[in-house]
Every structure is written in C-alpha cells, then in structure tokens.
Write a structure and sequence with these properties.
Blueprint lengths: L2 H4 L2 H29 L3 H18 L6 E4 L4 H10 L3 H20 L11 H23 L20 H8 L5 H16 L3 H4 L9 H19 L19 H7 L11 H28 L8 H17 L5 E4 H9 L6 H15 L2 H4 L4 H15 L2 H9 L2 H16 L2 H18 L6 E8 L4 E8 L2 E2 L4 H9 L6 E5 L5 E2 L1 H13 L6 E5 L12
Helix pairs in contact: 2-3, 2-4, 2-10, 2-14, 2-15, 3-13, 3-15, 4-5, 5-12, 5-13, 6-7, 6-17, 6-19, 6-20, 8-10, 8-17, 10-17, 12-13, 12-14, 14-17, 18-19, 19-20, 21-22
Length: 524
C-alpha cells in the first residue's frame, strides 16, 4: 500500500478505530506476559509500545502487530534466572536484536516461504482454539492465570483443559454477567442489521463492549456492590506516581556481562525463536489479508531486530510479530500498518497519562473480544474446506492443530511440517518449470513462457514465488500446466495471488491448463 493510500481519510479512520481494539487487547496481554515471564510488569508495556511504534514504522507488513510474545515466556523465565537477574537478560535481548538484523541482511527470511499452507492454516486454527479455551476462565471471573498465557502445560502442574474445567468451580457472578453481555454484543455486531447500518458498521464491536463493560461495573458499584468487579478481575497497569517510580520503570542492560557465554547462548536462542515466530505470523497475516499483500521477510527481520535492540536498551521484553494482535487487527478492519503504530501510541498514552482510567476495564470484556477472534480463526468451515482438499492437505493441517494445542506453537509447527514433508516426499520431486524468454523487438517487451513440470509441490513454492515476483514489467507471460499431473495447493495459491497483482506491473498473464485454487489434481 502506498504512503498516499495509508494516509487517505477512509484508511486513517479505519486504522484509528481498529488500533483502539488492538490496544485494548494488547494492554492486558503485555501485562500478563510480563507477569508469566517473571519480569517487571512495565517491561511488557515497554515491549508493546516499542513493538507498535518502532517496529510498526520500520516494518513493511500491512497488518501484523508486534509486541511481547507468549511463545517466549518459558525462555525468558529461564534466562532471567540463568543470567542472574533482569538486567543481564536485557543485554541478551539487545544482542538478539543485533543477530536478527544480521539475519535480515543475510536474507535468512526466505525460510518464511517454505511453510506449507496447511501448516499455516493449522497454526491459525490452533491459536483460535487456544484463545477460546484460555479466555473462558477470564470471561467467567477466574483470573488465577496470567492474561495471555498460551502454554498447554502450566507452572502449577495443571494444563489448559484441566484448568478450564476447574474454572467453573470459581465463577465470579459480576464478571460472568459482563462477559456474557459482551459476548452477546459482539455476536450481534456481526449480524446483517449492523452491517447494513452506515454508522454502526464502521465502529468495531470491541470498543462498544469495553465501554459497556466499564459502565455496567460502575452501576454494580452503585446499586449492587456484591457484584462489583475489582482487583485481579480488572486491567492492572502500575501507576507512575512521580520521578522516583519512573526510575523503576526503565531498567538498562548490564554490559559488564558481555564476557558471559550464557548471554550469547540466550541471545541466539531468542533470535532464532523470535524470528521463526515472526515469519510464521507475517505469513499467516498475509493469508488473512483481504488484499493479499505480501510482506518482505528480510525487511521484517531487520525491523524486528531494531525493535528488540530498542526494547532491550530501555527495559523491555523481547518482541515478535504476534498472531493474536494481528488477527484482532484484521478483524477490527485495519487497512494499513498505521493501525499498529497508533496502537503503540495509545499504549504509551495509557501508561503515561491515563492508567487509572484503563484500570477500570474488566478483563471479562477483553476475554469476550479474544473469544470471538478465536472463533473466527477456527471456524468449522475451515476444517470442512481443508478436508475437501484431500488427505495431503488435511492430515498436516489437523496434525498441526492438535500438536500446537497439546504442546506449544513452535513444537506444533515442527510436527506439522514433518507430516507435510512426509507427504511431499512420497511424490517424485521434479524441477517445477521450464523457463523460456523471447524478446519482442517491435514492442521491446518480453514474451515469457513458464511450462510447469509433472509435479509441482510446496517445496517449489519459494522458487515459483520469487520467479513470478521478479518477472519484468510490461511482459507477456504464459503459464502452462499442460504437462502437469499434480499441482499442490500451495503452488496454486502462489499462481492465483500473482494473477491478482500482475496488472500492477503491466504484465499480461495467460494461464493454460491451470486448475482453480480449490483443485489440486489436474485432469486432462
């Protein structure tokens, strides 16, 4: 999206409204992840602010949103202990950022093109299920777990499912009422009545439910004190009361530990895991993007690296692109990366100026927002669609869902990748295409013919993607699948995404015997 379009009146309005929803979701997540990581609460908020403003400005991703990630909690918790304190850990965060910048310049981001489509969709579906399972306790008022905790196995020995069951023995009626009303409003907000109303359809439901949640709790306090929500059931931003407390907010790296080998081990671990999570997230957000815009992976690694350097230098947690925030951003109607930047600014304003007002928001209202986001990521229609695509698509998809649900994001992805690769290796791996270019003297344009081979798999996705992206402007391109007996869904997705954007480079594209995106086997 061009700078002009980003700052158009219509896009700015959508981005500002969606940024409010992302901000409301990110606020307790930043605090919850810091708490679960054994780090100062402000470190999560600093990471959220840096992820929004710094990474948002440098990133070329249109819709992803960065901040502290639940997937790094275990690493952070262990590293703080291994390095003798939080300031030693901050040095590792800075070093991790430097490594990520280097990875970007080394063009390591290309690995993002090798994640097969069913694994990415399985990851999104699994995140949706986890959001629902993890947020139901907060919806009904059982807030023993940190808001935003995503691991299956928990520190107290319980797991996601056992904790969910036990939460129904600790229902807090005030939170339950607010949560159910919020859920009802959000469901109603997706109805045709709202969509047909010119004013209401432009207002994200998340803003409405938070406002109503605060109002209901105020009325509880006035008329039904026993139902009033307070304490752990509310957003809880530490209040900066003066210069003395401000000094505790910003902690700085301990550079005396530069000779400690554990700092470098932690830094490399953070850099690799954070980079993988970021590449997974931006790939997933690109698939959810209505306009099918693609994020340059190497540029994203550089942006994330700079973000981690800044975050580490001023006392923040490590940063990645985060699927939960990005999904909420898309659901709220964001148009460009300005939404991510605005959400970072709102976090800064909330922490610096309005913490008392933010602390009036019930967690039950925010849980309802995340439950609806989760359901839209894991709709039954998605499972049905993947099943119809055949065993080679469905088995890696459902394996990824189950593996992430019962382990964590990265382990689940690796298991899903292994299953996907198994199916691909069963087929004969061939060169994906024959490339032939002829210069037309009369028009000074190129006539290019790409003849696909007998079998085109997801392993050919990166090669095909890069070839199509680097086709010269004003060329006439023929993409011929006449010799192909099988074209995997991932390759078809690349072809049809290119077809939608070819006109931007004035490329004339002709498809011969290329099946539709919902078909994987070519019949001659």
């Amino acid at each position: 999206m061009s700078i002009k379009n980003m700052f158009s009146k219509e896009n700015l309005k959508s981005d500002m409204l969606s940024s409010v929803v992302v901000f409301l979701v990110a606020l307790p997540l930043c605090l919850g992840i810091a708490l679960a990581s054994g780090a100062p609460l402000f470190s999560g908020l600093i990471a959220g602010i840096v992820g929004g403003i710094v990474v948002g400005m440098l990133s070329k991703s249109s819709l992803s949103v960065s901040g502290p990630a639940a997937g790094l909690v275990v690493i952070v918790l262990s590293a703080i202990d291994d390095l003798g304190g939080f300031q030693g850990f901050l040095l590792a965060v800075v070093m991790a950022g430097i490594i990520q910048v280097a990875l970007g310049y080394l063009k390591a981001g290309i690995i993002g093109l090798y994640f097969p489509s069913p694994v990415i969709k399985g990851m999104l579906a699994a995140i949706g299920l986890i959001l629902i399972l993890k947020q139901v306790p907060h919806l009904i008022g059982f807030d023993a777990d940190a808001f935003g905790e995503m691991e299956f196995m928990q520190q107290d020995g319980s797991n996601t499912l056992s904790f969910l069951v036990s939460s129904f023995d600790h229902i807090y009626l005030g939170s339950l009422i607010v949560g159910l009303i919020s859920l009802f409003i959000l469901i109603a907000w997706g109805s045709n009545f709202i969509k047909q109303n010119k004013f209401l359809k432009g207002v994200p439901g998340g803003i409405i439910v938070v406002t109503i949640g605060v109002l209901i709790n105020y009325l509880f306090g006035v008329f039904y004190p026993d139902l009033s929500i307070s304490g752990d059931h509310m957003v809880n931003i530490p209040v900066i009361s003066g210069l003395d407390s401000l000094g505790a907010v910003f902690q700085f790296p301990d550079f005396s530990l530069l000779t400690n080998i554990n700092v470098y081990i932690t830094a490399f671990t953070l850099a690799i895991v954070a980079s993988l999570e970021t590449l997974l997230c931006v790939e997933a957000m690109d698939k959810l993007d209505p306009h099918k815009r693609r994020t340059p992976q190497n540029a994203e690694l550089k942006a994330q690296g700079v973000g981690n350097i800044v975050s580490g230098l001023i006392g923040g947690l490590p940063i990645t692109a985060v699927i939960v925030r990005g999904s909420a951003n898309i659901e709220a109607g964001a148009k460009s990366k300005m939404s991510a930047i605005f959400h970072g600014i709102l976090l800064l304003i909330a922490v610096a100026i309005f913490p008392t007002i933010m602390n009036m928001i019930p967690l039950a209202s925010l849980a309802a927002i995340l439950i609806v986001v989760g359901f839209k990521l894991t709709k039954p229609a998605l499972y049905k669609q993947q099943f119809k695509l055949g065993r080679e698509q469905f088995v890696p998809f459902i394996t990824t869902v189950v593996a992430i649900l019962f382990t964590d994001l990265l382990i689940g992805i690796l298991i899903g990748m292994a299953v996907g690769i198994f199916y691909i290796l069963k087929a004969n791996y061939k060169v994906p295409y024959h490339y032939e270019e002829e210069k037309q003297v009369s028009t000074n344009n190129s006539k290019i013919r790409l003849e696909l081979s007998e079998h085109v798999s997801f392993l050919n996705k990166a090669s095909l993607q890069l070839t199509l992206e680097h086709l010269p402007h004003n060329s006439n391109v023929i993409l011929d699948g006449s010799r192909s007996t099988k074209i995997d869904y991932d390759a078809l997705e690349v072809i049809y995404n290119f077809k939608e954007s070819a006109h931007e480079k004035n490329i004339t594209l002709e498809l011969i015997n290329i099946p539709t995106g919902s078909t994987v086997t070519v019949k001659h």
